[in-house]
Amino acid sequence: MLEFVVRVVGVLVAFLVAPLLVGQAEHKVMAHMQSRLGPMYAGAFHGWAQLVADGVKFVQKESVVPAAADRRVFEWAPIVAILPYLAALAAIPLAPGIVGADLDSGLFFVLAVMSIGVLGSLMAGWGSGNKYSLLGGLRVAAQLMSYELPFVLSAASVAVAAGSLSLSGIATAWNPWWLLWQLPGLVVFFIAGLAELQRPPFDMPVADSEVIFGPYTEYTGLRFAMFLLAEYAGIVVLAGLTTVLFLGGWSGPGPDSIGWIWTILKVALVSVVVIWVRVSFPRMRADQLQKLAWQALVPIALLQLAITGVGVTLFN
């Protein structure tokens, strides 16, 4: 019982802290990449408390429900958007034995619940009673249909190579030459993950110059803050999953007892790459977004899966 409580508390603390750290890193990393200061005053030293100040600001704002909205759908959308990432984080291992829930089919579970998170954006677009929100929600649906397939196929390639659906088992089976063997799958997985999280350059659903802020246009206060927190939590989950599947998880110099440090460092590195992509690439058009998925990522993912299957058959 005590072990269960410790695991639950650990996952909750990680879920509450890690997305905030990623959010703060985005403030500062983007500022440095764009040669500007970024937040500097909240909390004094380099604006370390900026996200705390933002949280206080959101708490003070009134949460308004539009008269034309479907109230129940509108109010539940932020919760549906954020909770799946909490469940996904519980299944991603930090080190051998350090995981919220070590599931035999952990990869399947995490991919499934990440897909559920997108439903929060769909509910927000449909339930807001706003035409721009509805257009943004439809764009979310289009991206989900396009990028879910290469996302799952590239992850399946790693599962075939490891011979396991357990995330801990995949991390244990990993070896350095996978960095070359599974490199195409890594690229596809990362790009498709960005699209599922609606991160730039795949932020068509929230394009401010076209649909104001897409599904989130009518949201204020804490409900809006929950969508922002869900985005940062999604980055943490994507980075953690990328680390476990393609970068060896806790593998690194030194004993397994410090493996959790390597996992955290790799997750931080992948998160910085997510931020770097936002700064470096302009938003894609809707037709470019669909073309990239169906004409590039899906064929590459299928080819990677086929090569992995042949390799496993011949050399195992």
TrEMBL record:
Subcellular location: Cell membrane; Membrane
Spans through the membrane: 6-23, 76-95, 107-128, 149-171, 177-195, 224-247, 259-281, 293-315
Catalytic class of the enzyme: translocase
GO cellular component: plasma membrane
Reactions listed under catalytic activity: a quinone + NADH + 5 H(+)(in) = a quinol + NAD(+) + 4 H(+)(out)
GO biological process, one term: aerobic respiration
Chief place where the protein resides: membrane
Membrane topology: Multi-pass membrane protein
Enzyme Commission number, as recorded: 7.1.1.-
Gene Ontology MF terms in the entry: NADH dehydrogenase activity; oxidoreductase activity, acting on NAD(P)H, quinone or similar compound as acceptor; quinone binding
Keyword Translocase attached: yes
Keyword field contains Transmembrane: yes
UniProt entry keywords in alphabetical sequence: Cell membrane, Membrane, NAD, Quinone, Translocase, Transmembrane, Transmembrane helix, Ubiquinone
Superkingdom as given in the UniProt entry: Bacteria
Role this protein plays: NDH-1 shuttles electrons from NADH, via FMN and iron-sulfur (Fe-S) centers, to quinones in the respiratory chain. The immediate electron acceptor for the enzyme in this species is believed to be ubiquinone. Couples the redox reaction to proton translocation (for every two electrons transferred, four hydrogen ions are translocated across the cytoplasmic membrane), and thus conserves the redox energy in a proton gradient. This subunit may bind ubiquinone.
Family designation: Belongs to the complex I subunit 1 family.
Protein's UniProt name: NADH-quinone oxidoreductase subunit H
Gene name of the encoded protein: nuoH
